[in-house]
Design brief:
α2 crosses α13. β1, α2 and β2 form a beta-alpha-beta unit. By secondary structure, the chain is of the alpha/beta class. Helices cover about 45% and strands about 15% of the residues. The radius of gyration is 21 Å and the shape is globular. The protein folds into two domains: about 160 residues, Rossmann fold, CATH 3.40.50; about 140 residues, Rossmann fold.
Amino acid sequence: MSFINDMKEKAKQNIKKIVLPESDDIRILKGTEIILKEGIAQITLLGNKDKITSLANENNINIEGAEIIDPEKSDRLEYYIQTLYELRKDKGMTIETAQKLISENSRYYATMMVKVGDADGFVSGACNPTSDTLRPALQIIKGAEGVKTISAFFIMCVQDKELGENGVFIFSDCGMIANPTVEQLSDIAISSSKSFKELVNSNRIPKIAMLSYSTKGSASSELTEKVINATNLAKEKININDNILIDGELQLDAAIIPEIANSKAPGSDVAGKANILVFPDLNAGNIGYKLVQRFGHAEAYGPLCQGLDKPVNDLSRGCSVDDIVGVVAITAVQAQKN
């Protein structure tokens, strides 16, 4: 079974309500039709009901069964406005600003639904930049208990099943923190191991490669020292019962190819067997996942958030309908863990 089909089956076992605020995008409506038909999740669409229904009918899309909420007419509007104001007043939020955000910005309305438990998660980004999805989530939902660093990752499904975990990798951070500190990089590694257990395979050991342009001291600079220090700090944070393996600094080929690992990093528990790749910064991470996706024809799901108290996930503006369905399934599975 493919990774995404596995996610769909898991999502069906405990149906969750997922909000899709970009209801004026045809891809979202087509995705909704598939999600409802396959029984992956309950769907709430935000926007004017007549416009959404008309758009669906004009394009022969069946969204029967989806809940449609017009934020401006919702009986929860005032409650969300007041709640947002109370949450953010110490940061300078006024009641007028809260009213404008909730009534006019569907991502803020969706975030409030998730925050107060009226929905289990939301997915956005098909026609809005990543910041529009993540900003309200970071402001309102915030981090889970004990989490200092909220980061983003991709699930990458490559064609060579001998790599990673039967062809599945976690790539972190490829969507949020531009230049992580040593502390943040170590946090990203730990969070990625939890995402692996949650989504990829709970019965297998996360094997984390802290990537660099150097392997085990083959080069030395501030850049390599940062990765080495982050690796050591992450090892200190791992509980003895966590059953997590981490090593670095490792070049990409040493991280995933056994023959090269034997030459460059003999004796490593991770080299040649990594299923999680932690990139040193957002330049490397973002370029890396897109190279694998476009040149290697890999499936890429994300950027997904890790460390939030409740699941909120982003879509690429170039996403397909299948991508939307897949990310909703992943979000539903994440919601089952809360």
